[in-house]
Amino acid sequence: MQRLIALMILLIPGFIAALGIKWMRDTLFGILHPPVPLLWLQFLLGFLLFALGLGFIGGFIFHRDRKRNKVQPRFQKK
């Protein structure tokens, strides 16, 4: 049950990061999506979504590995 909850917690930021990549890619091809009025703003929002999603996933994995003592000594809690 805990693994299922962990998977669900990671899927939502994964979809957010994927949406960010899609918006950045669409900006390069000149495709504007309705909620955003400007291409450069769409790219900026896409980058922000990508960074937030990736940061959450990275932080989740880092926290889990730190709890299990699977990180380098400089990252372990003192």
Q: What order do the SSEs take from the amino end to the carboxyl end, as H and E?
A: HH
The helicity comes to over 70%
Low-confidence stretches: none
Radius of gyration: 17 Å
**What is the domain tally?**
1
What's the total number of strands?
Answer: 0
Number of helices: 2
Name the shape in a single word.
elongated
Instruction: Characterize the main sheet.
Output: none
Structural class determined from secondary elements:
mainly alpha
Our estimate of the beta-strand percent is under 5%
The overall pLDDT, averaged over residues, is 94
Q: End-to-end span in angstroms?
A: 31 Å
Transmembrane segments: 41-62
InterPro entries: Uncharacterised_YqzF
Keywords: Membrane, Transmembrane, Transmembrane helix
Protein name: DUF2627 domain-containing protein
How would you summarize the topology of this molecule?
Layout: H1 2-28, H2 39-67
Helix pairs in contact: 1-2
Structure, described:
- The chain is elongated, with a radius of gyration of 17 Å.
- The protein is mainly α and 78 residues long.
- The model has no long low-confidence stretch (mean pLDDT 94).
- It has one domain (2-75).
- It has helices at residues 2-28, 39-67.
- Helix 1 runs antiparallel to helix 2.
- The protein contains 2 helices and no strands.
- This is DUF2627 domain-containing protein.
- Keywords: Membrane, Transmembrane, Transmembrane helix.
- It holds the Pfam family DUF2627.
- The chain crosses the membrane at residues 41-62.
